[in-house]
Amino acid sequence: MTAAVDLNADLGEGAATDEALLAIITSANIACGGHAGDEETMRRAVRLARARDVGVGAHPSYPDREGFGRRVIPMPLEQLTEILAGQIQVLSDIAEAEEVRLQHVKAHGALYNLAVGDETVADAIGRAMLRVDPALIAVALASLSAPDRKGNGDKPGDRGVELNRGARLRSQRALEDRTPSAHLPD
Fold it and tell me: Does the pLDDT at position 22 exceed 50?
């Protein structure tokens, strides 16, 4: 088995560095309008990523443009699921129109961090992904707390470890399929 590294960055957030980053990354998380971005910036980022053969992923967040998605906005599971699915779907539609496959989802800011220990938030992200495309890969924090040395894994964040292991394996296969130069020797 060969190992691969996916160098990933957030794009479409208003920084002037998107094009420069695309020269060195293998996948991009594109802001979907919750914390930054709009249909025009999403389309531009997707086109730039396609031109560089960079994988495209959604970067949804709480609807918090003022706080750049860094504030927790408590809401019921179904409401959060709908908001996230809507953001992901907009980017998915743009990607499809540009003949690009949306491959992954990496939540942004407070949502990303909270999902490690908050089952409701993690569930909302997963449900939103399933509504848009069950084949989407979840990019998640490994854990804020690791299982103990005896293998007990009942602390917050352990679910993120398993989610991330699966995402890494699927990401590795996708990366191997499209970027032979990213392979590392065994």
Answer: yes
